[in-house]
Amino acid sequence: MSDVLTAISPRDARAMAQVDALLQQEGIRRDRNLDYTCAVFDEDGRAVATGSAFDSTIRCLAVDGGRQGEGLLNQVVSHLMEVQAARGNTHVFLYTKVKNTRFFADLGFYEIARADGEAVFMENRRTGFADYCRALARSRRPGVSAAVVMHANPFTLGHLHLVDRAAAESDFVHLFVLSEESGPIPFAVRRQLVHRGVAHLPNVICHDSGPYIISSATFPSYFLPDEDAVIAAHARLDLAVFGQIAAALGVTRRYVGAEPASRVTAGYNRIMAERLPELGIECRVIPRLEENGRAISASTVRQAIHDGELAAVADMLPDATLRYFTSPEAAGVIRAIQAANDVRHY
Prior knowledge:
Oligomer: single chain
Shape: globular
Radius of gyration: 22 Å
Helix content: 25-40%
Strand order of the largest sheet: 1-2-3-4-5-7-6
Number of helices: 11
Number of strands: 14
Distance between the termini: 45 Å
């Protein structure tokens, strides 16, 4: 009996335990964001290779130490690419350790950016990121250009305060809305509310982040040892990508909101304040806006919607956001928020 490659259901506890053990042998953990997992089982029913996917990314690849060099990882990656193709994802991404870069290059992946020997971001299109930057460059404007990146989950007066400040202090503001789907409020809704919320600011240019700016919610952490390393690697990799985006747009400053209550965001902001000047970009950290003695927070808004208490946070929302969530159009999104177990950590 030869090796067999098969998909694994998350409910198959025995198989998933084998996957976890195999990953641990390679010093990695199963990522929290996975929507497909497969493994190669030998004739004794033992997992000897594994890989997973999340959205358009490939993750959690490992091969048993005694079976390396037999082409098993190529087999797993080829299968995952077939899965992605079946989903309609022809543009595929992966994050890996620096030492694995050459292997994935041989499989047709190209480096986008790397972070200090910690992580490499790759894609299966030779000019994918370059094409993205060239498209952005068409929005380049003369004068002082700033950038703001936000999840806007949903768009609050705090977000608007940040954009207002950037718009008042800059000739143009390039506002990026994270395109990834990582919570109960769909990207299409978040984008719509941002566009409506900043429509009165003529010097703000809105962009979809596309696949090249990724939030901490879906950054793959499986090959990093602890939370501090995850925060640092995510920030450094994201900034390596952002530096190239900023160069395409002529951006010389980035505005970020202070986040004293979040260890992840505080760590990200600290690294941003260190790294951005090295890229020729000023980092301006804006204090959190408060309303009636409360810090305005998208997570607070989501929790209020979850609890059926939207009125309690109405003073945190721009008119466009409040109108949306009090309209019939929002019924499905509200149901999704209320059905979620934890709406504070997206």
